[in-house]
Design goal:
By secondary structure, the chain is of the alpha+beta class. The protein folds into two domains: 150 residues, Type IV secretion system, VirB10/TraB/TrbI (Lipocalin, Beta Barrel); 77 residues, no CATH class. The protein has four helices and 19 strands. A hairpin with a 5-residue loop joins β16 and β17. It is globular.
Length: 287
């Protein structure tokens, strides 16, 4: 009988030790990456949204990864969820009335509340109210010999026709062609939402991603200063931000993500009549 009791006591002791070890492992805090307040989340509306009232939910996709140092804290493609915080009406414009559109334009302010990472992890965020910008383009300076020809320009212009949600976009275009119509946030609208509070995201297990090497020798930047060839004067100061870490061919980090670069407008020519293009040139001189 004694040996039986001893074996029971030993078994219980081992089980208790195993449970206590598992509890200790679960209690250890998961490694996190902290993204500081002031960082921007650049996201894209994947589907058009009809504006009805404040509080309407909105879903977008992150189009640029968010870095903490040289580590990706929020990967590109993460889902950003928020809501319409307010809608304000603007006065009708002369050109709008001449086109036969008598609907008062509306400005939509959006706030984002959650980030859903690719692995399904949901992280609560607090962003500033932001206004979306439609038809955002990426510009790249090319030498004259490398500039695209007419055929390439036509092909690029036709790309929006192959985007998803064709029926919804056709329906929206038909509705907005009426003199009085509801307002929409168009598919592809870009939002730059600024974090008001720091955010902690789980540290990714795999941190073996190769650094962004300058294969094309271009430094990619995002303008923080709005430019208009008809209003921006030559000599005006401009500012931009480096969205991704930039390394040289020797894998040396030259510009961390978040580096601000400053420059000036060197030439600005307003667009003229008969589809005459405007001209806008600028350069950067300090970081």
């Amino acid at each position: 009988m004694k040996s039986y009791i001893n074996s029971v006591v030993i078994s219980c002791s081992v089980l208790a030790a195993s449970v206590s070890l598992a509890t200790a492992l679960d209690a250890q805090p998961q490694s996190t990456i902290v993204v500081g307040a002031g960082n921007d989340l650049r996201c894209r509306l994947e589907k058009g949204l009809r504006l009805t009232k404040a509080g309407e939910p909105i879903t977008a996709k992150l189009v640029e990864p968010v870095y903490a140092g040289t580590t990706i804290a929020i990967p590109e493609g993460s889902t950003i969820k928020g809501h319409v915080s307010s809608i304000s009406s603007e006065p009708r414009r002369k050109g709008q009335i001449l086109r036969g559109d008598f609907t008062r334009p509306r400005t939509t302010h959006v706030t984002f509340d959650n980030v859903i990472l690719p692995d399904g992890t949901a992280v609560q965020i607090h962003t500033d109210s932001t206004i979306g910008v439609s038809d955002v383009k990426t510009a790249q300076y090319l030498p004259k010999s490398q500039r695209p020809g007419v055929r390439k320009k036509i092909k690029d212009a036709a790309k929006p026709l192959s985007e998803p949600n064709k029926l919804q976009r056709l329906s929206q275009a038909a509705v907005t062609s009426l003199p009085y119509h509801p307002e929409y946030l168009s598919q592809g609208t870009i939002f730059d939402a600024t974090l008001l509070d720091p955010v902690g995201t789980p540290s990714p297990v795999d941190q073996t991603e190769n650094p962004s090497l300058p294969a094309d020798n271009y430094l990619h930047v995002r303008l923080l200063t709005s430019l208009n060839s008809g209003m921006s004067a030559a000599g005006s100061a401009i500012e931009a931000v480096v969205p991704r870490p930039y390394y040289n061919q020797e894998h040396v980090l030259l510009y961390p993500a978040g580096t601000k670069v400053e420059g000036t407008v060197t030439r600005a020519v307003a667009a003229g009549w008969m589809k005459k293009n405007g001209e806008l040139l600028f350069s950067f001189h300090s970081a």
